[in-house]
């Protein structure tokens, strides 16, 4: 009896210890499921922040109209691709932008690997200057490609309730006075608005853009009022970058030709094909970028856009926006830019979501 009485507390303590060990090794299923759900929601939220809208976009029927979290970029009828919850706006086709990035990075890599001569006077300084210039070109390129070019808001009024809708749809344009000059203001059937005098509808992005210049295929974005200044800076920096690349490449080629007098140009081409290819590509880039920059400087001095000149808007009437060469260039480069007219991170209005539900859902292959 005594031995049994003495052993029973020890036996009970062992059983309690085993039960405590089992509880710690196998926690409750409800707590595990709660922790897993919390981790999954956190990962999903952070991943959705970086996921482009074309991947995360589902059918418009799956977006509840009464959902308070539905933002404008989720139901925007245009073809833009949004990142970071509408903070970054890309064009619908990124292939040109990817090719431009590859061209700049590959040119810089060949320049550092083959063109920079370690036996020269200042190889480290030349390499550092080239890297800084290439980085500046890349930053400006991304800023130009991701900035809202000046997208014009669409008419969010419910069409069946709008008075005189059929009359407005039959009216293709109207006349307005701009600085004493009569101009035609066209009606956009897609955006259901009368366009601003200098805006136009981009068929690629499917948006009306304020002061529309053109859609650049090498950037994959429209060039308009809010990113034209960055576009000019990008052309200038790219021209400077490829001019330096061409100058040092030609200098390096001449040094190699003098070192191998009997080899000739064919021998140099066999020995240094990357350097010769970089020099050829840089020469073409310099020529194209110089012509493009000169053309846009001419347009800025005239206060015209490429679209207006291509359409011949001021052939039969004076340009009401021309204030002289110096004033035009000053306004183009230093005038304060207006804020975006569309807040893509704002909550979507029910009328905009109703319009999106009536549109056929398509997934763009470029995404």
Mean pLDDT, all residues = 78
Report, as a whole number of angstroms, the end-to-end distance: 81 Å
Enumerate the spans where pLDDT stays under 50 for 5 or more consecutive residues. Answer: 1-27, 42-49, 55-66, 158-165, 353-367
Largest sheet: 3 strands, antiparallel
Order of helices and strands: HHHHEEHHHEEEEEEEHHHHHH
Number of helices: 13
Percent of residues in beta strands: 5-15%
Structure report:
It is elongated and about 75 Å long. The protein starts with a helix and ends in a 10-residue tail after the last helix. Strand 4 and strand 5 form a beta hairpin. Mean pLDDT is 78; it is low at 1-27, 42-49, 55-66, 158-165 and 353-367. Helix 5 (95-115) runs antiparallel to helix 6 (123-146), helix 5 runs parallel beside helix 8 and helix 8 (228-259) packs antiparallel against helix 10. Helix content is 54%, strand content 9%. Strands 3-4-5 form a 3-stranded antiparallel beta sheet, with no helix packed on it. The chain has 13 helices and 9 strands. The chain is mainly alpha-helical and 367 residues long. It has helices spanning 2-25, 29-50, 53-56, 72-75, 95-115, 123-146, 165-170, 228-259, 264-271, 273-302, 306-311, 325-334, 350-357; strands at residues 81-83, 88-90, 173-178, 181-188, 193-194, 200-202, 207-209, 214-216, 221-223.
Task: Considering the chains and any ligands shown, give keywords for the structure.
54% helix, disordered C terminus, mainly alpha, two-stranded antiparallel ribbon, elongated
